[in-house]
Amino acid sequence: MTTKTLFVVIQLFFVSLISAQTAVGWLVEESLTDSLSVKELSFHTCLKPYFRQKVNLKRQIQLSEKIGLLPLTDIGGQYDISRNLNYRAGLGFALETEPFKKSYLRVGALGMYGNFNLPFEPYYLSELTQNVYFQPTARFSYTPNSIFNFQIGMDENFIGEGSRSLLLGDYGRSYPFGQINANFWRIQYTLLYQFMQERFQDKNRGKFIASHLLSWNATKNLNFNVFESVVFQPRDTLLYRGFEVEYLNPIVFFRPQEYAIGSSDNVLIGAGFNFHWKKQMIYGQGVLDEFLLSAFRERNGWWGNKFGAQLGWKGKHDFGALPLFYRVEANFVRPFTYTHLNAMANYGNRGASIAHPLGANFAEVLIEGKTKIKELNIQLFLSGGWQGFDKDNKSYGGNIYRPYTQRPGDLGFTIGSGEKNNFVRGIIHVSKFILREGNIHAFGEIQFRYNSSSLLNKYSVLPTIGLRSNLWNDYRNF
Description:
By secondary structure, the chain is mostly beta strands. It has one domain (15-469): Porin (Beta Barrel). Helix content is 6%, strand content 50%. It is built from three helices and 26 strands. The strands form four sheets. The chain has an 18-stranded antiparallel barrel. A two-stranded antiparallel ribbon has the order 1-3. A hairpin with a 7-residue loop joins strand 25 and strand 26 (459-469). The protein is globular and about 65 Å long.
């Protein structure tokens, strides 16, 4: 061991003894007050929610010096084009505390009653009714030193800087997970183990996802990150595997390991970057499910070339007393990306994609802006693009829950194959902060929707009013 190497090891040892902040933030979209800048090379923004943040009990009902109670609410009514009133009424709580030094815990639930058409299967309180369900949240974090952080819970996670994520999004329902983070030098390395569930062959069955994320702050302004994930099931037609111990190895590459154990597991790889200057950021992602270079060069639309990409720009500007957040983002995902032989191996959870909410076989451009005028928060959202639906009882790769074996052929697949739908989405959202505890806002929203396909309503206007805690994302913009 050289003298320089020994010096670095000694430095890391003493750094690891430093007390670390332990709290984990909530997973919510960017606001006007969020910072885009990376103030130090050890801070990484591509994995959310952020950890090593102090608990802010000033925004809670303080039960004691280290315990806070957050009221949660989600109440709203929506009037659709068919003259139906969709509604939901949700009330609950979340408890935040530090059980012991360097730890953080939050646990809570939001119970709901309503008839909103959710795009994923929620947690029902009773199988006798489809109108009563709940949204649980739990996260325990332990940060023994400035290098390591350990988390377990039942929540959602997000990878990327965009409004959407092609690697891991927070769309859908929460799931049990375990997470290990190692932060050293300019690198953050994350191991994420997710425990999903699907309704398959008339039974609720579990499946597992193991992921690696390596984030490198090359400079204070430039970050690169790489991602790998494998979806596997504990039981197949031959044996009960349980959680595959080969995937517990923190430094193994999943694709060679999958071949080595002779499995048919679903492996995805991806990469991302972000570059920021002042209050601007350019960011992007790419995801690769399968790829054959010869077919790509021939441009024959081979079904097995499954990949997607994202490119975006976001920033902030103050026009005097008028703050502005803005974003322009483009996403596309080729047909059959994230799909597999059945629901037990696709990249989804409980009937919904865990990446982009549109699944696959789509191209989308979105624009959003946020500002504040006096006490009113105003958000504008506009997106447009095209997607392909299934046709003639054949899969064209948009629905990730249909097996790719149900495709009509092997060649000629492009984005929009099948029943093509050109779509436009527009949202005007106005809210007012009314209660510090729980970050509760009253809001009014109007949404405009256009679809060219006869499979959907061509024109829709959806006015909505409500009251909700702005502590998690509520997606209605796809």
